[in-house]
């Protein structure tokens, strides 16, 4: 009825250090992404489809990291790690659903850049507010039924032997290591869902950016290229961080030798990517930096009141 998340139990002397580091990281994620959401909503100059999607991504990152990090902090504080069967399934379900949402939302953001650069005259018509809302809603709900089914089929297998999960949250690969009997069908279903919810959005992103790069290279002036590349570089960086670490984690061969590497890669796409997103977008975007310079003094004044 219960599992035990081992987390970082192999380095007990560093528990309090890790608790402090991850607490600071969690606060930084909440603060950074929260400011991005507020700034893009408050500043009139940022009321465009690109920043609408960006604010939704920042809100998603807050939800995404809140599924795993608070639980990990509690385990580091109590040094227990016990989690009920239902809580483990719930954590996995929300983690998978939000992960699928991020895959779809990154593809939507790539499509937005594709229309803006390859079809600029039709951009206001194609990416109107109604379409943007529909794309965001579809990104949030499309993966939910599939991931609920994914969670059900994972937790419908029989678990025997050890109940210790060698991870800091309930994820598919370490859970399947505890399963009994033949789980070949379950593993094939996992790969099928991965192709459906991860590979397909990634291929769409790749195709959009191939067309974007082709269009940019055909621009007659260097000025046009200089303006177009920064619009896409931030998004490409986030895609590489998220998809790179996630793909290696779920598609590499199973082996007990990779346990430490699994945790490190999981930290990348569960914690470090949400931490870096506000920095990547704000540092490379003049409009966001300008809006933040106007917004932060107002925020300080309100706090003073």
TrEMBL record:
Transmembrane segments: 16-39, 51-69, 89-111, 131-148, 188-208, 228-244, 264-283
Main localization of the protein described in the UniProt heading: membrane
One Gene Ontology CC term in the entry: plasma membrane
InterPro entries, per database record: GPCR_Rhodpsn, GPCR_Rhodpsn_7TM, Olfact_rcpt
PROSITE patterns per UniProt: G_PROTEIN_RECEP_F1_1, G_PROTEIN_RECEP_F1_2
Top-level lineage group: Eukaryota
Subcellular location: Cell membrane
Family annotation (CDD domains): 7tmA_OR10A-like
Membrane-related topology note: Multi-pass membrane protein
Domain G-protein coupled receptors family 1 profile stretches: 32-281
Keywords: Cell membrane, G-protein coupled receptor, Membrane, Olfaction, Receptor, Sensory transduction, Transducer, Transmembrane, Transmembrane helix
Entry GO MF terms: G protein-coupled receptor activity; olfactory receptor activity
Pfam families tied to this protein: 7tm_4
Membership in a protein family: Belongs to the G-protein coupled receptor 1 family.
Entry function: Putative odorant or sperm cell receptor.
Protein name: Olfactory receptor
Organism of derivation: Camelus dromedarius (Dromedary)
